[in-house]
Amino acid sequence: MKCNRMVDVGRRQFLRGGLVGAAGAAAATVMPASQAKAQGLARVDYPSNRLANVADLAVNEPLDIAYPDADSPGVLLKLGAAVDGGVGPDGDIVAFSVLCPHKGWLMSYNSGDKTLNCPGHYSRFDCEAGGQQTWGHATQNLPQFELRVDDQGDIYAEGVDELIYGRLSNVL
Ligand code: FES
Fold it and tell me: I need a labelling partner for 127 at 20 to 30 A (CA). Which of 71, 102, 138, 142 fits?
């Protein structure tokens, strides 16, 4: 008998909790204007920076660059075969941050397998697959710089697809 009463009390408390939860969910769907505005401000305006000209690049020879500012080192690569996100006449030009997403060590390019390799804890990132991590400790893929090539062959960086290591915002 006592046991049945306990079950009944537990059921009522569960139902009450469910109602409170439903009310909270309904309130959460209406976002205050101030919160919506704050989210809008979180969007980043990236600079359009000229990195090099197509004629400056040789297949599989990395060119040091920096984007979106001088404190964010990166590498510009002509991979030799078209890849997703690649630009230029052959669709094979890409650019990445060389700061490891794990703890910010400076990475180097391995032309043998077209990866960026970290000397810190050995993470590896595939430059032919959008900077996908193939090994290691990092918890995100490598930030890739979004590129555009104009009629003269000048290559511009105009965005970044992941958070650059050590930053709360890619543009400071
Ligand atoms: Fe690159 Fe740890 S800093 S794997």
Answer: 71
Is the beta carbon of 167 within 6 A of some atom in ligand 1? no
Q: What tokens appear for 77 in the block?
A: 């690569």
Q: How confident is the model at residue 43 (pLDDT cuts 50, 70, 90)?
A: confident
pTM: 0.77
Q: Measured from the CB, is residue 124 less than 6 Å from ligand 1?
A: no
- Contact predicate 159/46, CB 8 Å: yes
Q: Is 91 close to ligand 1, i.e. is its CB under 6 Å away?
A: no
Residue 142 identity (one-letter amino acid): L
Amino acid identity, position 167: R
Token pair listed for 118:
């970290």
Mutate to test the pocket of ligand 1, among 98, 99, 105 (most ligand atoms within 8 A of CB): 105
